[in-house]
């Protein structure tokens, strides 16, 4: 049976998604230094989406790979070629309209897995606009950036000098995940930048050479496929537990489909 929503026929889709889970990966096409492809955020969001959908016998949507712009303090910014993006106002409108049509389906739960740091506020805004329109009703929504599910205890055990997620752009965690999932797309270069930028600070003008090393904001040394595999499993485990427990939701409707 197809696990991708778009592989269903129109005649099948209403029955198959009724009360069930749909997982939408949201990525980007963004520079990730000289060692990783532009597709990192999309590859990772899509890779996380598959097992999450599977755990709930749900369906995945195709990854959305053109999204928010790259900012210097969290993505190296647009001085590096290859980032293909839309402005935040366009992104909110795009997401809102896509969500409006998606919620016309009788799905019971939407999970959005975000892989691109700068997408998050626009995603949450679009979801909330759709909620305000009354299109979601009492259906469940879990939208998160994958790194938000990484436990502090995991970071304490598995990493040293963690620079913060904004600075992990193209750093040890993304490099390790890519070495685990798509080693064919990772080059041998391992640039290190010893002064990660501050989070939540907008600067102009920006000296790109001060804030990055070839588009890398922190360090890549110590990346490994083994670490990537551990991180991948950790995030999947956390995501499935959160969705299954309904963590953060006020109540669970009796009789709601638990898959
Ligand atoms: Zn990234």
Automatic annotation (TrEMBL):
Keywords on record: Hydrolase, Metal-binding, Zinc
GO biological process: riboflavin biosynthetic process
InterPro entries: Creatininase-like_sf, Creatininase/forma_Hydrolase
The keyword Repeat belongs to this UniProt entry's keyword annotation: no
Necessary cofactors: Zn(2+)
GO molecular function, one term: hydrolase activity, acting on carbon-nitrogen (but not peptide) bonds, in linear amides
Coiled-coil boundaries: none
Listed transmembrane segments: none
Xref: Pfam families: Creatininase (PF02633)
KW Hydrolase (keyword) present: yes
Family the UniProt entry places it in: Belongs to the creatininase superfamily.
PANTHER family on file: 2-AMINO-5-FORMYLAMINO-6-RIBOSYLAMINOPYRIMIDIN-4(3H)-ONE 5'-MONOPHOSPHATE DEFORMYLASE, 3-DEHYDRO-SCYLLO-INOSOSE HYDROLASE
Name of this chain's protein: Creatininase
Organism from which the protein derives: Kutzneria albida DSM 43870
């Amino acid at each position: 049976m197809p696990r991708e929503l778009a592989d269903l026929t129109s005649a099948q889709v209403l029955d198959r998604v009724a009360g069930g889970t749909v997982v939408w990966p949201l990525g980007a096409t963004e520079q990730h230094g000289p060692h990783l492809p532009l597709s990192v955020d999309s590859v990772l969001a899509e890779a996380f989406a598959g097992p999450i959908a599977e755990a709930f016998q749900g369906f995945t949507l195709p990854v959305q790979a053109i999204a928010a712009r790259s900012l210097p303090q969290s993505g190296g910014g647009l001085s590096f070629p290859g980032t293909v993006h839309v402005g935040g106002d366009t992104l909110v409108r795009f997401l809102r309209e896509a969500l409006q049509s998606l919620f016309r389906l009788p799905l019971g739960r939407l999970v959005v897995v975000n892989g691109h740091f700068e997408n998050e506020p626009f995603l949450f805004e679009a979801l909330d606009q759709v909620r305000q329109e009354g299109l979601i009703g009492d259906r469940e929504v879990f939208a998160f950036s994958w790194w938000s599910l990484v436990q502090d205890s995991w970071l304490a055990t598995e990493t040293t000098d963690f620079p913060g997620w904004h600075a992990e752009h193209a750093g040890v965690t993304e490099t390790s995940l890519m070495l685990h999932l798509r080693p064919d797309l990772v080059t041998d270069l391992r640039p290190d930048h010893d002064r990660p930028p501050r989070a939540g600070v907008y600067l102009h003008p920006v000296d790109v050479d001060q804030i990055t090393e070839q588009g890398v904001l922190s360090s890549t040394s110590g990346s490994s496929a083994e670490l990537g595999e551990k991180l991948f499993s950790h995030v999947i485990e956390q995501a499935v537990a959160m969705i299954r427990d309904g963590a953060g939701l006020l109540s669970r409707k009796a009789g709601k489909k638990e898959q």
